[in-house]
C-alpha cells in the first residue's frame, strides 16, 4: 500500500485495473490518502519460497515482481516500485462444487467454511446472509431442537451456495482476462 500522492494518473479517484492473461494489477484508492495494490499471478502457491524469498523480504519480493512485470507500462510498475508497505500473500482458493457435509445437529458451517469461492464480490454477502438465516433459525421458536434449526438453515444455504459456486467455478481466471466484459449484454441479476 502506498500514499496516493503521485499516483492520481494511474488510479484516478476510484481504481484501476490491468491484465495480460497471466498477471493482473488492481489498484484502489482507500481512506487516509492510501492506494491498495493487488497483484494476481498464475504461479505455484509456493512462488515466494521457490524464489528463495520470505514474506518479510519486502525488497526481494518487490524486485521479483518488478522483473515479472518488466514489460508493463512504467506508470503501472510504479505501483509496485513505489509501494511503501509490506507484501501479503493471499493465494486464491475455492472449495469443490458442490461442497456438502454430513448433517450434525449441533454443528454447521457458514461463510467461507461452507462455500469458499474466488474473491469476486459474492462471498461476504453470502456469509452475512448465512449468519442472519442461522441466527433467525436458532432464535425463532419454530423448531423443537437446535438440530431442527440447523437442518432448516442448511436446507436453504446449501442449494443457494452450490448454485452460486457453480456460476463462479473457474471465474477467477477472468480476473486475468485481457477481454473486457460486454456490460450491455451481461446478466446483472
Mind explaining what this structure looks like?
- With 189 residues, this protein is of the alpha+beta class.
- The protein has a 4-stranded antiparallel β-sheet, covered by helices on one side.
- The longest helix is centred in the C-terminal third of the chain and has 23 residues.
- The two termini are 33 Å apart.
- The relative contact order is 0.13.
- The N terminus is likely disordered.
Set out the fold topology.
Elements (H helix, E strand, L loop, with lengths): L1 E2 L4 H4 L3 E5 L3 E8 L3 E8 L5 H4 L7 H11 L5 H8 L30 H4 L7 H17 L6 H23 L21
Helix pairs in contact: 6-7
Global morphology: elongated
Overall mean pLDDT: 84
Low-confidence stretches: 1-6
Number of helices: 7
What is the strand arrangement across the widest sheet? 1-4-3-2
Q: Mind summarizing the main beta sheet?
A: 4 strands, antiparallel
Beta strand %: 5-15%
Evaluate the radius of gyration. Answer: 21 Å
What's a quick, concise take on this entry?
This protein has helices at residues 8-11, 47-50, 58-68, 74-81, 112-115, 123-139, 146-168; strands at 2-3, 15-19, 23-30, 34-41.
Task: Write a concise keyword list for the protein shown above.
38% helix, 7 helices, 189 residues, single chain, four-stranded antiparallel β-sheet, elongated, alpha+beta
Amino acid at each position: 500500500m502506498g500514499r496516493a500522492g503521485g499516483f492520481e494518473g494511474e488510479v484516478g479517484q476510484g481504481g484501476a485495473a490491468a491484465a495480460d492473461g497471466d498477471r493482473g494489477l488492481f489498484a484502489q484508492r482507500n481512506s487516509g490518502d492510501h492506494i491498495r495494490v493487488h497483484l494476481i499471478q498464475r504461479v505455484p502457491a509456493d512462488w515466494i519460497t521457490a524464489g528463495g524469498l520470505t514474506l518479510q523480504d519486502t525488497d526481494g519480493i518487490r524486485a521479483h515482481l518488478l522483473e515479472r512485470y518488466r514489460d508493463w507500462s512504467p506508470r503501472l510498475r510504479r505501483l509496485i516500485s513505489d509501494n511503501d508497505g509490506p507484501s501479503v500473500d493471499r493465494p486464491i482458493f475455492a472449495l469443490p462444487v458442490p461442497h456438502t457435509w454430513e448433517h450434525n445437529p449441533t454443528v454447521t458451517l457458514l461463510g467461507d467454511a461452507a462455500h469458499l469461492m474466488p474473491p469476486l464480490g459474492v462471498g461476504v454477502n453470502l456469509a452475512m446472509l448465512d449468519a442472519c438465516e442461522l441466527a433467525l433459525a436458532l432464535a425463532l421458536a419454530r423448531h423443537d431442537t437446535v438440530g431442527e434449526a440447523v437442518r432448516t438453515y442448511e436446507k436453504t444455504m446449501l442449494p443457494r451456495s452450490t448454485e452460486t459456486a457453480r456460476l463462479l467455478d473457474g471465474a477467477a481466471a477472468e480476473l486475468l482476462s485481457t477481454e473486457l466484459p460486454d456490460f450491455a449484454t451481461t446478466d446483472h441479476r
